Amino acid sequence: MAGPLTRRQILAALGGAGATALAAGLSPISFPEADAADPSKPERQWAMVIDLRKCDGCRKCTQACQETHELPTNFEWIKVFEVTDKQGQSYFMPRPCFQCENAPCLRVCPVAATFRDSEGVVLVDQNRCIGCRMCMAACPYGARYFNYKDPPGTPNPFAHPTPEFPVPQQKGTVGKCMFCVHRTENGQLPACVEACGMQALWIGDLTTDVATNGTETVRLSQLIKENDAFRYKEELGTGPRVYYIAGHGQHLDL
Amino acid sequence: MKKLVCAIVALGIIGLSVVVAGPFAAGTRTPRVATQPADAGHDHGTVVGLAPAPITDPAATAARLVVTAQPFEKTERGYALQVNIVAPDGKPVADAQVKFYELVDLFGTREMLLAAATTDGRGAASYGYLPAHPGSHPLIVRFTGRDRTLTAGEGRLTLEATVSAERPAPERSGFAAFSDKVPYAAGALVLTVWGLIAFALIATARGVIGAAPRTSTKGETA
Amino acid sequence: MDRRTHDRYLERAMWSIGRGDRNFWIAVVGLGTLVAAGIYAWIYQIQRGLWVTGLNQKVSWGFYIINCVFFIGISYGGAMTSAILRLTNAKWRAPLTRLAETTAVAALLVGAVYPIVDMGRPDRFLFILLYPQAGSPVVWDVVAISTYMLASLVFLYLPLIPDLAITRDSLGAGWLRRIYNVLSLGWKGTPGQERSLARGIGIMAVLIIPLAVSVHSVLAWLFAVTARGGWHSTIFAPLFVLAAMLSGVAAVILVVAAFRKVYGLHEFITAKHFRYLSYLLVALGIGYLYFMVSEYLTEGYLLEESTTPVLEAIFIGSYAPAFWSFTIIGLIFPLCLVALPGRFAIARACTASGLVIAGMWLKRFLIVVPGMAEPVMPWDWGRYSPTWVEVTITIGSAAAIPLILIIFFRFFPVMSVHEMEEVEGAVETPRAALRPALAEGGNG
Lengths: 254, 222, 444
Description:
The structure holds three protein chains of three kinds.
Chain A: H1 3-25, E1 46-51, H2 60-69, E2 79-84, E3 90-95, H3 104-108, E4 114-116, E5 122-124, H4 134-138, E6 144-146, E7 174-176, H5 181-184, H6 191-195, E8 201-205, E9 210-212, E10 217-219, H7 220-226, E11 242-245
Chain B: H1 2-21, E1 51-52, E2 64-71, E3 79-86, E4 97-105, E5 109-118, E6 124-129, E7 135-147, E8 150-161, H2 174-179, H3 182-210
Antiparallel strand pairs in B: 1-8, 2-3, 3-6, 4-5, 4-7, 7-8
Chain C: H1 3-15, H2 22-48, H3 63-87, H4 94-118, H5 127-130, H6 137-169, H7 175-183, H8 191-224, H9 236-262, H10 271-302, H11 308-315, H12 320-339, H13 345-373, H14 388-411, H15 417-424, H16 437-443
């Protein structure tokens, strides 16, 4: 009787296909290990400290970012908010991508287009992104931007955007601040840090515990500790890699 | 006269930086102190490779800074960096502001400010330093000078640290390790459901075809 | 059921098969135009990009996600109604199950297209299968919707097998007959065949309920797993499931009423059916109201900073008109309308169903848009107003459901004959007496 065999075969085929699909999908969420292979040359783990006492809201960081990544003007990968607190005082708060260690955007991506590189920066592979915008719904900081249109400027047929250098942006995909990985890997400061005239932005490395704002260099952990730096919406458990030094004694938990 | 002294001091500093900071010139990504005499008599029991850096004294008025490092008894606390400032006349300099720096490599070589301290009556100031990572730590202690007879000086030391602060742990709850496995269970469930649907369809089809009467003319004659 | 009623039932069930009168073609052309307009708008959007919609950086989900949830919800109601009636062996189900199951499939086919319409890169749709990330709710959605679609197609097909045989037997020789013959798997109604079929339908009826629950739960988790104030709620999954059942039952009432009128099924689908379906509607509506109160009470009592702006916007802010019209006109009023005893049960059920369906669409809007527009960085609200593209696609997709239904029932019996015979006890009928239009037209 051929019947049961057929059924079993079909079930096996179904199961096989499903198992393959699942195995492909169950690649665990990538996370950099704490101990690098070579201890003498530990891998960078980028972090940022933003000194709200210094930020004057000039938005040079946003402009520099947009120039570097050839973005339209409404793409504020680092966006400067003017905040008025409950005491009526106002201050400026630049918001880059927080490169969360427990990034919600990374977990919800259906095709793993969002991933974390070995230096802890959350990158988007726009050659993979399907444009479902689930990550934009998931990001509690609104740090992601969807390319509804092609980026401004004449298209360059030889451009070859990569996750590390997503220039130009691809229409129909999501982009965001990536701590200028294409610059840091060449020993250059991120564009926003370099552009900040107030030295309010510090880029730091958690492994060697160093932070610099371009002119001064300090110990990152000291900078955070001595200034009571906080992380925005820390209670969400996202583990942001961006710290804020509170400004003029404002009420901060807005 | 004043200008001359300044010029001498400036020349001295340049000379010093050429001699000492040569290895740290731009482009060198891994700073190392060149002169590292093997000190056989040094205690290697707890600290490896602690060697005082050479002290050059180009200007006669410059303060001399001698930097040493000792591991704390509680080793997890790191190292006690101590600087002794001696005036050209050999007397210790009290109440002097010194700053501790480390040469770090972050977008080029940079001097990272560690701490500021003031010397005590014996001309000594100290700073408890727990490095962020094991390995070489080129340290500089600077004194900006006090007056014409006691001008700026610096001391250097390369600390070969074996003790370091704990690396920041990844912020990942233990629950994540558990929740990573949930999709496997869900996947198994989905496969079961697919199997059940396939069974319902295929078994019914087989049953219907199998139970059909062989001579299938009766109903079709209509 | 006497023989005459039985024959009348058969005649009515098969009436639409192969019939191509003027009204049919008017309906097909009318609905087809709307669908074509929707497809044109979609092509227009694919060519230019999503900027032709009203979506923006703040509100990046809009009509498409609302419609996806809405249409899959309607589908859910159809499947649930049929499955529940089968499992409880309700005697009055026979004329309804086919309509309910077909509505389920038609709405699901429409709803399942929406995630693709919403995608920025629809050309990369297969990436979800090639590089799936099991932790993503979008992947859960794709898995759950496709499983549910497979199940509801099987659930539509299995009870159709005996009816296919009846249709086959009423046809003369011809290629159509051969197709029906293959599809009906040589059904003769032997006891062995009946047993196999009953088992298959039984499995599917049991399976379709958890599957439908899973689809709507997963759709709810698409929202609930985020950190957004209006969305991050534990009650979302059951709330979505109930919303789906509510709108689905309402849709079944409307579909049944429409086909009853147009296809002349008055004799078999009576006020009794509408009253029973209305009871189901009331029960689900009260359940939904309860869930809603539970959700808003827990959120509105504590007034967390993440949820307060959304609640303000919904209850007293810019979304208040939509919210209160949903609550009063779209939920409480229709429930009262059908719960009260009295005359005009059918008219009241239809009015209530229409209001409930509109209300449930509005409720999905109130979930998706304020949740998106809510300031995550607490200083700026987003804005969303759809363009003609979204509106056209929405209308076109809504028109696709009746279009699919009338085309489907041109080829398949609109009421389950076999089911009726099973419930009422078979009556020996000379099948030759049946000659639907298809038999005449199909061979001509």
